[in-house]
Design brief:
Blueprint: H1 7-10, E1 16-18, E2 21-23, E3 30-35, E4 40-46, H2 50-69, H3 72-88, H4 90-101, H5 105-126, E5 142-150, E6 153-157, H6 163-176, E7 180-184, H7 191-202, E8 210-212, H8 217-226, E9 232-236, H9 239-251, E10 258-262, E11 267-271, H10 277-289, E12 299-305, H11 306-321, H12 341-354, E13 359-362, E14 380-383, H13 390-393, E15 400-406, H14 409-417, E16 421-422, E17 424-428, H15 432-441, E18 446-449, E19 464-465, E20 468-469, H16 478-481, E21 482-490, H17 501-504
Parallel strand pairs: 6-7, 6-9, 7-8, 9-10, 11-12, 11-17, 12-15, 14-15, 17-18
Antiparallel strand pairs: 1-2, 3-4, 5-21, 10-20, 13-14, 16-19
Helix pairs in contact: 2-8, 3-5, 3-7, 4-5, 5-6, 6-7, 10-11
This protein binds nicotinamide-adenine-dinucleotide (NAD).
Amino acid sequence: MVQRFDVSERFAAGAQYVAGKPASGTSGRSHPVVDPATGERVLTFGLAGAADVDAAVGAARAAFPEWAGATPAERSEAMHRWAVRLGELSEEFVYAESLQCGKPLKLSREFDIPGSFDNVAFFAGAARGLTGVAAGEYSGGHTSYVRREPLGVIGSIAPWNYPLQMAAWKVLPAVAAGNTIVLKPSELTPLTSLMFAAAAQEAGIPDGVINIVTGAGKDAGEALVGHPDVAMTSFTGSTAVGRRVAEIATTASRAAKRLHLELGGKAPFLVFDDADVAAAAHGAVAGALINTGQDCTAATRAYVQRPLYEAFVTAVADLMSGVRVGDPFAEGTDLGPLISHAQRDRVAAFVERARAYATVVTGGQAPGGELAKGAYYLPTLVTGAPQGSEIVQQEIFGPVLVVLPFDTDDEGIALANDTPYGLAASAWSRDVFRTGRASRELQAGCVWLNDHIPIISEMPHGGYKASGHGKDMSAYSFEEYTQIKHVMSETTGAVRKDWHRTVFGDR
Ligand code: NAD
């Protein structure tokens, strides 16, 4: 059971949140929020256009001086109150996230929502501890110290797969460091971002510090990235759109804007021949199917050393067939639908094309019966695909795992590194020298040893290679959302400083 509420009534004022108030988008175009488990519309809202982006940036700009001038303790206290308010609303967030994404209740309740709220608590504390090197007389005649300053208005763009978590990862380090923000959630999933901003306002975070514009990428998204009053663009989404965003951010009115890109992934899952095969098979199935495979760090390519290969494939197929696909709001459901019918069809097309060159061991189809109207797709295991094939190389973003064998450790590591992406990877072995080598040589921003997926607020998340650059979560994210100023204060008051000799000689 979950506490349901009337979505169209709650968001009757619109799917924008500007200067502390909900508003309707003025682009003249509307968009639905659809329950992917049923295909039914739950809300139709007016999309934001360039004028709405401009208003939101204006509100963020107006709020900046006061928020940036607040003490770290004041910002921290406001964020702690926000965390408390969110805790009171927890079940409403669970409902909204499960409804707009089709997430099983247990995923929303045990992962998305508490993880996001823990992020708020973490950044409420971290707001008081921005670090730098100690002040000192490094030159001998000056005191040097570092100021870590906010940038101004941040423009952030988030995807639909973990709407609240992605909003939290963008908003929290930005506002903890004294910036104000305009966030554009995916137009498919605006509900929890709007609730997040409203809860901040209820907790006393000033109007205009957090603004939400829900519009289409090409329209509101590009307007936000290119806006001259936006100091930095922080983007999470696909690599293809990330490239477009980078192009605008570096060529629009304010050239070379600060840019933070969290992009796609194609995580390898490397199983050495001394691994616990049952543990590895459980890890692979959970790591591939979490969030119906719509996870940028999901296990997508399992490379298994030859002696364990057959046992691993059998165990994975067996475990996949036991996963209960169904209604996200039924307590027993393990796997919900994909985000949309379009995404389901995209995943199905990858698998259909793979039949020409690989073996679909289990799954490979949408379920029938009651589930046929939703965007469901069965857990799918593929073997025998060539390393260069699209199912091994491209991000599918669905419940599909490819398993391939390898012989030597060198080969396994080389295959794992052989895609353009570098977001996450895991290695499975009971030998510390093998796991140690994997942790050094796997080219990814996160490497798990004998597990795959967990994340924590205290530790950074971000990519290598085509998976982007910059870090979300942890104190490392302050590197993105602050600019560092070196202040050098001369200590002697002398008219002629030592270094003036280079200009005046000995005169
Ligand atoms: P997407 O790239 O299609 O869209 C992401 C966001 O960008 C959406 O809000 C969309 O409206 C907006 N957008 C689209 N075109 C735009 C444009 N031209 N200019 C500005 N904004 C634009 O991605 P998606 O389908 O929403 O999400 C799935 C992708 O996100 C996957 O590739 C996944 O790996 C990635 N992702 C990465 C991380 C990470 O931490 N690296 C986390 C979650 C998701």
